[in-house]
Amino acid sequence: MEGRPQELSDDARRALDLLRHDGVVSVAALRSAGIAQPAQALYALQLAGWPVRRNGSSWRLVDRLEPPPPRPVPAPRVRRVSRED
């Protein structure tokens, strides 16, 4: 991942530094750190290839080899049957 921080905006670099330092960061913590648009900074990190994953209201850097979280079980499909009087 060498060389990637040069491709990032200032806000994305600050968000990356916070993620590296703290491990888990919320959007409110990014705002309090002076990042004007935290969602856009996190999106820029994702586009640059950094493995950022959301967990509820917080974000964290993950290992590339870590498996993705399991997908939720889809809701069962219900077949509608018309009533006959």
Note down, in words, how this protein is organized.
It is a single chain. The protein is an alpha+beta fold and 85 residues long. The chain has a domain at 4-61: Arc Repressor Mutant, subunit A. 34% of the residues lie in helices and 13% in strands. It contains 3 helices and 3 strands. It has helices at residues 10-22, 27-32, 38-47, and strands at residues 24-26, 52-55, 58-61. The chain has a 3-stranded antiparallel beta sheet with strand order 1-3-2. β2 (52-55) and β3 (58-61) form a beta hairpin. α1 (10-22) packs across α3 (38-47). The mean pLDDT is 85.
Please tell me how large the radius of gyration is.
19 Å
The overall pLDDT, averaged over residues, is 85
Question: What proportion of the residues form beta strands (DSSP E)?
Answer: 5-15%
The shape, in one word, is elongated
User: Count of DSSP E strands?
Assistant: 3
